[in-house]
Amino acid sequence: MTTQHQVNQQQYQDKSQAYLNSQVHAQGVEFQKMQQLIQSHQFQKVLDLGCGGGHVTYQVAALVDEIVAYDLTPSMVELVSTQAKQRGFENVIAQQGAAEQLPFVDQYFDCVITRYSAHHWQSAAQAMHEIYRVLTQDGKVIIVDILGNSNPAIDSFFQTIEMIRDPSHVRNYSLEEWMHFAEYTGFKVETVAKQHLGLDFQSWTERMQTPEYAITTIRDLQTKASEQVQRYYQIKADGSFSSDVAYIVLSK
């Protein structure tokens, strides 16, 4: 039996370089927000949860004593370890593992950051409990991810094309779902903001090495989508589209 974690690892094992070079992942207004929050609270121990190509780690490492770049996929962890050394960061610890079972002692981190990773978690509820456990009493959590939608038609369309593109996709959660996770776990919600993300169709599919038959299926779904869906995602003739992104800050 193939578990969801194995699906994730299989999907991403040979894509670390693509994620390192991805402009979508390397850029974002959220980086400045993260840096300001870390500096204003003088946080020194940070967890980059689901580090992928390591962009959060590279943006934050110079500001803290220690940052753990943590990811389910071994090749991502190896890449970040190598890149951190090349960039002169001696305070980066690269470690492999799942979000649902963090191998850290209670209240170890001042700040946990997860960016474009949560939609791959097999159990968001369990991962949130683990984040709560490893966070200090005065710590903060920063969550950045593409938003699902409370409108079923709009939501189903995006979840479907994401899974066709990337079988390791689990779910992009709506703001309502994120608020439920936060409050159920015991977090206080400090900040909720929306950002807008444009996705170039070609790079979006090339990054995941999406097979041609799957690309054809996605394009077919895009052309047959309702006017409401096409308008919401601003679907262009070449398949490129836009989506809302959540920037959420939580505290204990």
UniProtKB/TrEMBL annotation:
<dbReference type="GO" id="GO:0008757">
    <property type="term" value="F:S-adenosylmethionine-dependent methyltransferase activity"/>
</dbReference>
<feature type="domain" description="Methyltransferase type 11">
    <location>
        <begin position="47"/>
        <end position="143"/>
    </location>
</feature>
<dbReference type="Pfam" id="PF08241">
    <property type="entry name" value="Methyltransf_11"/>
</dbReference>
<dbReference type="InterPro" id="IPR013216">
    <property type="entry name" value="Methyltransf_11"/>
</dbReference>
<protein>
    <recommendedName>
        <fullName>Methyltransferase type 11 domain-containing protein</fullName>
    </recommendedName>
</protein>
<dbReference type="InterPro" id="IPR029063">
    <property type="entry name" value="SAM-dependent_MTases_sf"/>
</dbReference>
